[in-house]
Amino acid sequence: MNRESAWQRADGRAGAVRDRGVHRSRLGLRLLGFLLDIPMAAALILLSPWLLHLVFLRGRSVGSLMQRLGFWAISLPSRDRIWIHAASVGEVRAAIPLIDCFRRDRPGAEVVLSTMTTGARDLAEELLPDEQVRLFPLDFSPCVHGVLSKLRPDVVVLVELELWPNLLLACRARSIPVVVVNGRISASGEKKLSMFGLLTRWLMQGPTQVCARGEQDAERFLALG
Question: Contact 110/128 with Cβ under 8 angstroms?
Fold first, then answer.
């Protein structure tokens, strides 16, 4: 009886330590997200007159702006959902074989593709008429969490090197795996990234898995993270 009670007390203490560790980790993630949001919030305030000018005086799409702010008109998932982010026209083309693989290997899954530029979005809508295409939200916590709350992806796939800090933080907080495909880092890119030290190391550790384009790219990912 005494031995059993001792084990129960020890197990209870271990559970309390684990709970405190998880709590501290979550607090740390929230603090980091808050620090990352400060410059983005300042930029949004400074740029708000220009954004209003684009929409109301130059006729830019209100829908595009709303997508940037994280308001995606999309239904909650009824099946597995894969979010693929391909920033540019070239990355959209690189993502097509991957989407074909998902169609073949996971025919019941739904693919949602996001792009950074409107040109890439237009190309994706032309080449992938059966998939939902959206503009990538600003890497600002309210925008990112707004998208994830509505999208609820089972996995996030980033093409090449689209490591956005708040997106990685939000996915980690929600236990959503993040995979980098066709990952590449040039020699000059490695030099620039190495200048940011701990931030770069943290970014490189954000994805759950990295599928590098080649051996040199894999070595650079490992060296940086």
Answer: no
Q: Is residue 18 part of a domain?
A: no
- Range in 52-66, 96-110, 164-178 with the lowest mean pLDDT: 52-66
* Cα 9 from Cα 32, distance rounded (Å): 35
Number of domains in the chain: 1
Closest to 178 in 3D by CA, of 197, 158, 149: 158
- What are the tokens at 103? 């169609």
SS3 of residue 106 by DSSP? coil
- For residues 115 and 124, the answer to whether their CB atoms sit within 8 Å is yes
For residue 183, the domain's CATH number is 3.40.50.11720
- The domain of 167 spans 64-224
Q: Per-residue pLDDT tens for 100-146?
A: 999 999 988 999 999 999 999 999 999 999 899 999 999 999 999 99
- Furthest C-alpha separation in the chain: 79
The token pair at 204 is 């490189």
